[in-house]
UniProtKB/TrEMBL annotation:
SUPFAM superfamilies: Outer membrane efflux proteins (OEP). Residues 1-26 form the signal peptide. The keyword Membrane does not apply. This is Outer membrane protein, cobalt-zinc-cadmium efflux system.
Length: 425
């Protein structure tokens, strides 16, 4: 069977991957997810654990075996027992009759253990793919920061050229030229730092599907970091999806397993009847006789009462743990939803208002400086304010996308195709 949270599930991070699925030679988020699923060893480990747990269900659902016993008494001795003259040969069948529904309880316990393994695999899969998505966002942001650093370097080169011309004409002091040269060196250093950070982020991202020794080569990402067209929605709408959270399904599965353990212990307290039926051949008289035996444990219910009580209390504790973690997930969801709203609003403000105004201000100061109406310091401040605003835009956009990824992870509205496997009956 499938748990309710997986019915109709679609690929992980669908809403995010649509932003970066533009055909290009550069790497998209969708390609990143596919490469990770194909090569990351954890996915193979999850599949192996699920197969092992499924095999446990098949094994533990079997009835007790029927055993064929063979015995030979008085086979070798002295006196009248020489040459097996007094030997007795017995061929018997034996088995166990489980009372109290033990087989059914054992099957349910194994099935609950499988469901827990399955839920853990799904939760870890979603967590891993969300981690990959966050790494992709961070790398895309670093790529944008490198672009801004290179733009700053270009502006500083232009600025230095203008300042040098004014200084040569005697319209600007030597101090302005020296400060412009220092600003150019700082921007060149910033480009180098941004390039190193991007290389590090690319290495981290590709490590999800490449080994440490594989050459990375040239790699770039494609996507619009600033496309936040999907509204965050209202929190009550998000809250209704908390019950589908895969991390909560793990705790729910643990609670069901604890309950199944309790049921199995109670069933075992009913005891089992061991039986044995056989035929004995007497060599001396050449006659056969039928034998039968049965053993029933006494006071087994009293002996197992403490274990049953402990199992019940563990089941109760698991239910309380589920409720506690549900509150934690709700709080984390609200924090992520609130952060998404804040960062989305910030992106909109920077794009629509702050950056356009700062561009106009820089153009005004640039023209005014060339005409001698503004100081070099005014031009430098206007340029740095614009660059800093663009950096803030990148930070807000990446934070908004990361918050949205966390919301998807917590609500399990999108899960990997690898996690929609049937549970054995």
């Amino acid at each position: 069977m499938k748990s309710p949270m997986t019915r109709g599930a679609v690929g992980l991070i669908v809403s995010l991957s649509t932003l970066w699925s533009v055909p290009s030679h550069a790497l998209t988020l969708d390609e990143t997810i596919q490469r990770t699923q194909a090569a990351h060893p954890q996915f193979k480990a999850y599949s192996a654990l699920q197969r092992a747990s499924r095999a446990d269900v098949d094994t533990l659902s079997l009835a007790p075996p029927i055993i064929l016993n063979g015995e030979a008494d008085n086979l070798i001795g002295n006196g009248s027992y020489q040459q097996a003259a007094q030997a007795e040969y017995t061929l018997a069948l034996s088995s166990v009759i489980e009372l109290g529904g033990q087989r059914r309880a054992r099957h349910q316990q194994a099935l609950s253990a499988y469901e827990l393994t399955d839920a853990q695999s799904k939760s870890r899969t979603l967590s891993l793919l969300s981690e990959v998505t966050r790494a992709y966002i961070a790398t895309l942001a670093s790529q944008e920061r490198l672009r801004i650093a290179e733009e700053s370097l270009r502006l500083n080169k232009q600025t230095l050229a203008v300042v040098e011309k004014r200084h040569q004409r005697g319209a600007a002091p030597k101090n302005d030229q020296l400060r412009a040269e220092a600003a150019l060196e700082r921007s060149a250093s910033a480009v180098e730092q941004a390039r190193l950070q991007l290389d590090n982020d690319i290495y981290r991202l590709t490590s999800y599907w490449m080994t440490s020794g594989e050459p990375r080569g040239e790699l770039s990402l494609t996507g619009n970091l600033f496309d936040l067209s999907t509204p965050p929605g209202q929190f009550p709408q998000r809250l209704s999806a908390v019950d589908d959270a895969l991390v909560l399904e793990v705790y729910a599965s643990e609670a069901r397993l604890a309950e199944a353990d309790s049921t199995l212990i109670q069933a075992r307290n009913a005891g089992s009847v061991e039986w044995r039926v056989g035929v004995t051949h007497f060599a001396e008289s050449r006659e056969e006789a039928l034998s039968a035996a049965a053993s029933i444990p006494l006071f087994s219910g009293r002996r197992g009462s403490s274990a049953a009580s402990a199992a019940r209390q563990r089941a109760v504790a698991s239910e309380y743990e589920y409720q506690a973690h549900k509150r934690d997930v709700t709080q984390r969801l609200h924090t992520a939803w609130s952060a998404l709203q804040q960062h989305s609003a910030s992106v909109n403000t920077y794009q629509q208002k702050i950056i356009p105004l700062l561009k106009r201000a820089m153009d005004e100061v640039e023209q005014g400086y060339a005409q001698g109406r503004y100081r070099y310091q005014d031009w430098h401040i206007a340029r740095e304010e614009l660059i800093e605003a663009e950096r803030q835009l990148i930070s807000s956009a990446s934070a908004a996308l990361i918050s949205r990824t966390l919301i998807e992870e917590l609500t399990a509205r999108a899960v990997s195709n690898q996690t929609t496997q049937d549970t054995p009956q």
